[in-house]
Amino acid sequence: MKKDSLFLRLFMNDKFILFFILLNTAMIYLQESNLHDVWIVVLDVVCTCVFVIEMICKHIVLGVKKYWSSGWNRLDGVLVILSLPSLVSLVLPIEMMSLSFLLALRVLRVFRFFRIFHFFPNFSQIAMGFARAMKQSYAVFAGLIIIILLFALISCAIYKDVAPEFFATPTDSIYSIFRLFTIEGWYEIPDTIADAVSPAFARFTRVYFSVLLVLGGIIGVSLVNSVFVDAMVSDNNDDLEKKMDALEKKIDQLLEEKDSKIK
What are the Ion transport domain coordinates in residue numbering (predicted)? Predict the structure, then answer.
């Protein structure tokens, strides 16, 4: 097959593939809504076949090495491979062949929708900004996780007998502290505990959880957000600073030329 054939150009066309991604997403939505009409299943299979053919066409045009060297192609390829059980389960007797795990893998077909991000404007720059922000702020994230773990262990030791529904185990305690740090509904846990203990212990509990809210939910999370957002936009700031420096140099040159002419 020639690399410039109409068939290959069709399956290399982003708009053509985008249509089937959207169509496949609609079919998955209908299937997960317990609608299993024949035409829905047929369209789902057609979309899967289109994605398989697209991957084959890209291998022909780009070559195996170049195809898998691209991050987007690796994502597409993995998602296509994970979608193959939806085809296999239609032609093989899954129960008889003890391949029921393929039915579980069919759930992964919902990840095909992530391919649509490839068509978002400037998404590559956003992804690179996200990766840069994660690199620059991982220490702050690690610090917040340590704080959550520390207070979770302390809270578990204090309240595991008083409020086992929240602090029975360190794992339960970690989740409860995380809920507290999200601020939304933070008062429910201390109020529930306060209703079940003595007045003095209730006052201590409300003060204790208020301090946790301030340290973790307000200061801690705000610090993480500010560091992460600053790292996300740092590339734009760098470009702006470079442009400003270039502009200042041009102004200095113009002023020097003007001074030389006057002299």
Answer: 15-235
- pTM exceeding 0.70: no
pLDDT of residue 88 exceeding 70 = no
Query: Which amino acid appears at position 211 of this protein?
Result: V
- Residue 244 has φ and ψ, to the nearest 5°, of -65, -40
pLDDT digits (tens, 9 = 90+) for 115-140: 666 666 666 666 676 777 777 777 77
- List pLDDT tens digits, range 59-85: 888 888 888 888 778 878 887 887 776
Query: CA-to-CA distance for 116 and 58, rounded, in angstroms?
Result: 17
Full 3-state SS string of the chain: CCCCCHHHHHHCCHHHHHHHHHHHHHHHHHHHCCCCCHHHHHHHHHHHHHHHHHHHHHHHHHCHHHHHHCHHHHHHHHHHHHHCHHHHHHHCCCCCCCCCHHHHHHHHHHHHHHHHHHHCCCHHHHHHHHHHHHHHHHHHHHHHHHHHHHHHHHHHHHHCCCCHHHHCCHHHHHHHHHHHHCCCCCCHHHHHHHCCCCHHHHHHHHHHHHHHHHHHHHHHHHHHHHHHHHHHCHHHHHHHHHHHHHHHHHHHHHHHHHHHHHC
How far apart CA 143 and CA 219 sit, in angstroms, is 12
